[in-house]
Amino acid sequence: MSTTEKDLREHFNQKYSSFRKTLNGSQSPKIDELREHAINALNQNGFPLTRDEEYKYTPITRALLKSFKFTEEHPDEITMVPPFGEHLISGLNGYILVFWNGKLVFNSGDTPKNLSISPLQDLSKEQQERLSQYLGKLVNYQLDAYAALNTALLNQGSVITLKEGTNLDQPVVIYHLTDASQGPVYTQTRHLILAEKNAKATVIEIYKNLSEDHQGFQNVASEIYLEDAAQLDLFKIQTDTAGALLVDNTNIEQKDNSQVRCHTITTTGDIIRNNLNISVKGQNCESHMNGLYLVNGTSLIDNHTLVDHRMPNSYSNELYKGIVDDTATGVFNGKIYVQPDAQKTNAFQSNKNILLSDKATMNTKPQLEIWANDVKCSHGATTGQLDAEQVFYLRSRGLDEKQATGLLLYAFATEFLEQVSLPVLNEYLERIIADRLYQLKS
Amino acid sequence: MSKDDQILEEFTSSEYKYGFETTIDTDSAPKGLNEDIIRFISAKKNEPEWMLEWRLNAFRKWKTMKEPKWPNVSYPEIDYQDIIYYSAPKQKASPSSLDEVDPELRETFKKLGISLEEQKRLTGVAVDAVMDSVSVATTFKDKLAELGIIFCSFSEAVQNHPELVKKYMGSVVPINDNFFAALNSAVFSDGSFCYIPKGVRCPMELSTYFRINAANTGQFERTLIIAEEGSYVSYLEGCTAPMRDENQLHAAIVEIYAEKDAEVKYSTVQNWYPGNKDGVGGIYNFVTKRGLCNGSGSKISWTQVETGSAITWKYPSCILKGDNSVGEFYSVAVTNNMQQADTGTKMIHIGKNTKSRIVSKGVSAGKSQNSYRGLVQIMPRAVNARNFSQCDSLLMGDKCGAHTFPYIETGNKSAQIEHEATTSKIGEDQIFYCNQRGIDTEDAVALIVNGYCKEVLNQLPMEFAVEAQKLLALTLEGSVG
């Protein structure tokens, strides 16, 4: 008998109640209350099916129902720390956190005074009490069922605080490793990043699926607060996630003069869904969203972004590019809201896609909702193939068909790298893009 | 009263000049909707058995459907049992010449500037006038018949050309297509029917003029246009209603069927009563319009100027089934005061080398909400499909909203899809430039808006283009400053 959406909820409700028992009242009542609200919201709204507008093109719930064998789910205790060294990106130094199936297994520690990284599960009741004004305030458990699930089971994760005026010398690097070699796993992690006034940092999140023997489902949620004039570069690297089911909810709040640059790159995965929500609550803010997806096989990559301009004089810019091959599917939904108070907003959005095969699909929905009149907003979306004239130009200069298309695709994709300033990362991603394009073409 | 106030007063009173009501005897069904009402309508129209069955079938489907909640509009729940589904001006059965039409009726259409009288032959537009869901007069019938063109009311078509109606009705918009289409299929009272035979180029513009007159009634008309191989027709549609404090429902269906190399151009100037400036009254305009390019090389072009209605919910669409077929959609949607519009198009590319073009211009003023919602879908089989979409919004005032919801689904690598959208306001420098040359602000806005909409207005037949330009200026009156 096939599992239904109700079974899925049942399963996670059981998980929730046994998880509650293990906590045994050791937690702040405020956080407990948040979990309770979240599980209620999940039970009320249910997991999204494709008739749900937000998940119209992304049958992730169906994929869970179909292939996820919860009865065989691997117990999540880790008795010994697995050797994870080989999965780290060589040369990428920083303050490193490694989560293995949702458990923190490595924390490089040794942080300077102005940076604190603490495991979420190790916080004292008092600390939890203090953070309750941030936790669960941005991740909306009413709107997204997976965010609700993450909030209900909130336990493992990190709290990263950048003190006033910090300028970090090294990036914070967070690895999310999923190992489903022993059986199907559901893993989740939760992050809270607080950047105080004038703090400046780079945070790199890396998602990896280590084994395709069983299904691994990863559910990550982050809440990021940028105080006045704080600056953050946020990377999401999803290049080693073959066979993964992944939902990532990232919610950012910006205060006056703050700047955020988000870079999301996805090249593999079964079904991957990224929700990037930015709420601009200050003036003169800058928000950049930079995305690239290169997909083939039967992968489905879905990027949903939302910029909510609530205050005047801010600027947002979004560029998502994609190359889709085989029977893969790309989904893009970019929303820009300009609220009545957000006069003089400049908001731009662009989504460009190239389809390489007749069975590839691209569904895009660039959406503008504007309630203020003195604004400049535009969006554009294109889907097509390489320009025959450009290919011809290169061929007339002696390149063969493959080289010519390869060069053009490379040029199309590497626009993403123009905004990646960290040299180690730039080199690493360039290699990945090149390899990936080589696979796509052959 | 200061001079400014006086001017303002004038504007508000000149808001809607078609808001008069004609006192005319009507023949109505009781309020409510059930199978008996449908039998009543069918009997009134002396319909054959198959037509009644078709209606009842639609009604049964409708009962199982839910009213769509996804449009970006809000309105109080509609009580479908509180509407009169059939109302007809009383007159002698099927007038054979215009002289037999009730003079009061003729007067009404005269006030609206619709040329029912033959002496207006010079304007060269054949009109089918529909009042409260019933066709009251169709002009130029005989002349068109010489060419083999059938242009008559829908009920006449059911009587005289049942084979055509049976074959095509519901072939583009099936009865269970959506909630309002099902409702219309069950209770539609009349509408226009147009058939252009093979190879005929219709020599004049065909036009339907819709008028809601009676209170508490819903208007449910149905238009069916069939263009046979190689034919051409240009079709116009206009509409007005009296000013009333209540909301009236208008749920129409337009179906266009184009065979090989046929071309149909359908233009609408929609000017239903939009309600007063506090949002009281006005028409709920829930319309399903769809064209099927069945044959290769066929072309369907929709042009609409939407200035009226309290709520507009309308997506004129093209199904590009034939190879090399072309679909076009040109739209200007203007909302002022408390109006809400959720309008756009669907372009479904099925055949090879199909092309579509979407130009949508939204203007919102006052406290209105204006949404563009569109779908461009390229099927895997639609090799070399091409689409260009442009949807621009113009915001006047800081209490209105403009929204775009474009869905673009591409299932084929050879497709070329472009979509662009901008939102902006009228620049102060533009207004200043006009002021400086002696054009007052109000006229300057009208001028700029007309320029902004020009791309769409240029698509309209000349008679309509003039009317549309005036309408635009009228709708936006008082919205500046």
Descriptive report:
The complex is a heterodimer of chains A (442) and B (481). By secondary structure, chain A is α/β, with parallel strands linked by helices. Chain A folds into two domains: 5-282, no CATH class; 386-442, no CATH class. In chain A, 23% of the residues lie in helices and 38% in strands. Chain A is built from eight helices and 19 strands. Chain A has helices spanning 5-23, 29-45, 60-67, 125-131, 145-152, 388-396, 401-413, 423-441, and strands at residues 95-100, 103-107, 115-119, 157-162, 172-178, 185-195, 200-209, 216-226, 231-240, 244-254, 259-266, 271-280, 286-295, 300-309, 315-324, 329-338, 346-355, 361-370, 376-384. A ten-stranded mixed sheet of chain A has the order 2-1-5-7-9-11-13-15-17-19, covered by helices on one side. In chain A, strands 3-4-6-8-10-12-14-16-18 form a nine-stranded mixed sheet, covered by helices on one side. In chain A, helix 2 (29-45) packs antiparallel against helix 5 and helix 7 (401-413) runs antiparallel to helix 8. The mean pLDDT of chain A is 90. Mean pLDDT of chain B is 81; it is low at 1-14, 92-96 and 117-124. With 481 residues, chain B is α/β, with parallel strands linked by helices. Chain B contains eleven helices and 24 strands. Chain B starts with a helix and ends in a 5-residue tail after the last helix. The relative contact order of chain B is 0.10. In chain B, strand 3 and strand 4 (134-138) form a beta hairpin. Chain B has one domain (17-476). The radius of gyration of chain B is 22 Å and the shape is globular. Chain A binds chain B through residues 53, 340, 343, 353, 355-385, and chain B through 70, 380, 393, 395-425. Strand 18 (361-370) of chain A pairs antiparallel with strand 23 of chain B.
